[in-house]
UniProtKB/TrEMBL annotation:
It holds the Pfam family Peptidase_M8. Its main location: cytoplasm. Belongs to the peptidase M8 family. Binds 1 zinc ion per subunit. This is Leishmanolysin-like peptidase. The keyword Protease applies. One of its GO terms (biological process) is cell adhesion. GO terms for cellular component: cytoplasm; membrane. InterPro entries: Peptidase_M8 (IPR001577). One of its GO terms (molecular function) is metal ion binding. PANTHER family: LEISHMANOLYSIN-LIKE PEPTIDASE.
Amino acid sequence: MLSTVKHEIIHALGFSAGLFAFYHDKDGNPLTSRFADGLPLFNYSLGLYQWSDKVVQKVERLWDVRDNKIVPHTVYLLVTPRVVDEARKHFNCPILEGMELENQGGMGTELNHWEKRLLENEAMTGSHTQNRVLSRITLALMEDTGWYKANYSMAEKLDWGRGMGCDFVRKSCKFWIDQQRKKRQMLNPYCDTLRSNPLQLTCRQDQRAVAVCNLQKFPKPLPREYQYFDELNGIPEEDLPYYGGSVEIADYCPFSQEFSWHLSGEYQRSSDCRILENQPDLLKNYGAEKYGPHSVCLTQKSAFVMEKCERKLSYPDWGSGCYQVSCSPQGLKVWVQDTSYLCSRAGQVLFVSIQMNGWIHNGNLLCPSCWDFCELCPPETDPPAANLTRALPLDLCSCSSSLVVTLWLLLGNLFPLLAGFLLCVWH
């Protein structure tokens, strides 16, 4: 995989705990003191040259955990100037001291990657879970080595954590989840839904793939600092310490993760909306989805139902699906097959009723923010009346155009007979 090759090359070029002590400032001066032989102090317990606090600093965070407790949580921050600047801008946190390094995963992962909880799918986190991107933060680190000049125009957009503020980047995911609940807002990028059968589908944080929450039960209680839940739907209180996200190096924080469909153990397709080959079969496409390069993941407000005469079919796994979107002067348009629906505001419910392959597909979609996908967007307004007419039901059995034409022809033929009969009776 190309992303893995890039990942390892960046390690070799400078993103490595074994090289931190050799970084230089912009004037070429070592950021870590050297002995007469030109080498820094060697740390035998770590098996590498010891960096100075101009490169990495140890910080204690106040960490919210279950039972309304706060415990100390030790983190290591990379504090070189460009990294600090890019991290502050990315998270919108002007007091952020530096970018957190991974504190789990053992030798080779710990301190050698960005913290997975904060930069989930960034190319230089410690495991590949989904859609790796090389961000400005990693390019800043490479420039802060003192050995390179970064071309920031080559950076890829990282949505994870973008603009989420100091509480997101400096506190536990429990604190973030609790605050979002109090504000009655979505928990993104985290989640609190147990993976179950049927699946409760959601969207990946960047809205480019259908996803499921990776919250699961572990065989043993999690370490105290990673126990985040005071309650979970259907879970006894005594079992709560066993629950967390499946990715350990994300500090066990649960998040929505893309997945693959399998049949009898064989891979069928992935949930990435942009891959055309992931398009479901016609007779299994209950949500009238469309996969392809212009498709994104949208929330389904209700399960889609396929109807034909008296037959009704629905799929138990629902909650999100892939649909094409486009930008227009009027705002974001969602396309369901060949029918467009205008999103006048985020959270607007689209009432979908379309005909496809001899079936009527009925369901509801939630509009995302226009700014999630478009560079220019009009002010949000209430939806126009034209959008509301989409809710009018279709009926292949009683309202088909051929049936209407047939009825009119019958009436046309009967009218002269009826008129003649009335004239005879009159006379």
